[in-house]
Amino acid sequence: MLASASLGAVWSSAAPDMGPPGVVDRFRQIEPKVLFAVDGYRYGGKAFDRRETVREIVRELPSVEAVVMVPHLDPGASIDVPGTPRAIAFIEAIATPAPLAFTPVPFSHPLWVVYSSGTTGMPKAIVHGHGGAILENLKAAALQFDVGEGDRFLWFSSTNWIMWNLWVAMLASGCTILQLDGHPGWPEPGALFRFAARNGATFLGTSPAYLSACIKAGISPRKDHDLSGLRGVGSTGSPLPSEACRWVYEHVHPDVLLASISGGTEAGAAFLTSCPVLPVYAGEMQCRGLGVAVRALDEEAREVMDQVGELVIAEPMPSMPLHFWGDPDGKRYRESYFETWPGLWRHGDWLRLIPRPESVTAIIYGRSDSTINRHGIRMGTSEIYRVVEEFPEVADSLVVDLEYLGRESFLPLFVVLRESGAGVPADLRRRLFDAIRTKISPRHVPDEVFAIPEVPRTLSGKKMEVPVRKILLGHPIERSANPDAMANPASLDWFVAFARERRW
After folding, report:
1. How distant, in Å, are the alpha carbons of 12, 87, 107, 128, 391 from that of 325?
2. Which CATH superfamily is domain 370-502 in?
3. Between the CA of residue 425 and those of 117, 428, 429, what are the distances in Å?
4. Which fold has domain 112-292+320-341?
5. Fewest CB atoms within 10 A around its CB: which of 73, 149, 291, 482?
6. What are the residue boundaries of the structural domains of the chain, listed by start?
7. What is the pLDDT of residues 447-477, one digit of tens each?
8. Residue 192: is its pLDDT beyond 50?
9. Is the pTM of this model over 0.85?
10. CA 395 to CA 391: how far, in whole Å?
11. What is the pLDDT of residues 200-220, one digit of tens each?
């Protein structure tokens, strides 16, 4: 990526575990000329050979002029790609030294193309520029994360997530970057912490899902590993529950900057983030990003404080997309973010800004298009998850609001039980509903609870509430979700069968 940037070439990446259709849907839009590919990868202790997948991808990408095979499983791995002018090994590609030289480019010259999740259609190919991406990420490193020379920065990610781009961009701060190749919870739940300790990480970034898994596994990383050098712990991908905040200070390190952040692939930046000189409030993000005009709006587009509203960005940021690839007149770009309120970027999240003596903190309540609306009272799904996932019997959960034209809504709660059985025990059902009734609202008690094998998630770990809702309301699965943008596409099969059985 760095070599491509030095030449003024445009970079884009996808994870090696993605299926060919998912990769092709992304790369066909941008017509790449050179493809770097690994022969395979390891995850959870298993090896996965991807050479045939690479061949299939290249067959669908006629723009590719050269394939560079990077051996990962087999040091001697090579690949023959029929119809491709050149297929060479990485060692051959770098055999002839070349002087380090940089091609000057304008501030807004394209740096990389990233993609929306593509859960309900063709992923949007989002173009970021050199100057904007560098400014935003250097600001994040130096001023929001307090990362610089001498630090060792780790944010667990894959090449399919915007956090990989942030991780690479941290090099501009002068730090060393670390990355775990594989499963963060294998061969034991705390594997990511073991890796961080062994390599002297001073900042460790992960997701609420991983931290919750560590909590449920009952581990205490600070007792098992030397994490004394850790100065920062980051979390993004979904809201970080209060109990996870407390767990970090009790079981990871008693004195770290807890950087719970929220932003978007589209902007390649955090809207809500951390600050090393502000206090941390459990369950809240410390502040709005420097230079980011974050607002919460009610249904009449009035700014609100200390109540839930739509997250909007009111002024331009350096790293907002230059454009979407293949969208020459900007029509798709404007429709995606500026159609609701012209001149305001509507991001699609529920946000509450909270006045504090030192600053304005924030809570994200989930996607605004998956909000529960019961009897006129709106509620973000994350509020229900915080209560439900406190139960030791519950490993994961999903809730959707099924509204019918001319009928009252039906609110099902789906739970993944730690111990599988015939269904949800009556006692657990009662306790779940009592907890929601008392801790949230009687209006938002689900109509029923169902046990499921697993919660459908995107490749970046987000719960797929909207696609599940569409399936349960009778939409065909192929129009509801893109399996190649999912971490566990087979998880949708249960909901398809459930919808057929219930005749939603």
Report:
1. 12, 27, 18, 10, 45
2. ANL, C-terminal domain (3.30.300.30)
3. 35, 5, 6
4. Rossmann fold (3.40.50)
5. 149
6. 2-101, 112-292+320-341, 370-502
7. 999 999 999 998 878 899 989 988 998 888 9
8. yes
9. no
10. 8
11. 999 999 998 899 889 999 999
